[in-house]
Design a protein that fits this description.
With 130 residues, this protein is mainly alpha-helical. It has two domains: 1-78, no CATH class; 80-130, no CATH class. Helix content is 55%, strand content 11%. Strands 1-2-3 form a three-stranded parallel β-sheet. Strands 4-5 form a two-stranded parallel ribbon. Helix 1 crosses helix 3 (41-53) and helix 4 (59-70) runs antiparallel to helix 5 (80-92). The longest helix is centred in the N-terminal third of the chain and has 13 residues, at 18-30. The radius of gyration is 15 Å and the shape is globular. 27% of the residues are buried.
Length: 130
């Protein structure tokens, strides 16, 4: 297993640098179910932030780009049980990916709620306004 950092995935998805895209493609093509790539929750959050803010991809474009990768047998994602609901929140427009991950991981850790000042996060279950 090898780790894959956010910028490699940006190049793989956005394809805006030919040399780096070729290297990212090569890496992802070498992955197998027995020797997969591993993406941390931090790298995934950074990837989504970059795609939304720097490249101005819509929520649906981000989800469409990530789903095949995340459902692949050759890529493992840290905290997958939190990632898929967070991706659904992004798809539905009910919240940002990172906020949904925070709420889900807090719940899994036994938190009764997660306090926030973020009005957007309050649209998601698991948050309470402070």
């Amino acid at each position: 297993m090898v780790g894959i950092e956010a910028n490699v995935l940006v190049r793989y998805i956005v394809r805006d640098d030919a040399a780096q895209t070729a290297k990212a493609d090569g890496l992802l093509q070498r992955l197998t179910p027995t020797d997969p790539g591993y993406v941390t929750i931090v790298a995934l959050s950074e990837l989504i932030w970059v795609l939304r803010r720097s490249y101005r991809l819509s929520r649906s474009e981000v989800v469409a780009a990530l789903e095949p990768l995340l459902l692949s047998q050759t890529v493992r994602v840290q905290h997958e049980v939190a990632v898929l609901p967070a991706l659904n929140a992004l798809r539905r427009g009910t919240g940002e990916f990172a906020d949904a991950v925070i709420a889900t991981l807090g719940e899994q850790a036994g938190c009764s709620t997660t306090y926030t000042f973020d009005q957007g996060a309050l649209r998601l279950p698991g948050f309470t306004a402070l």
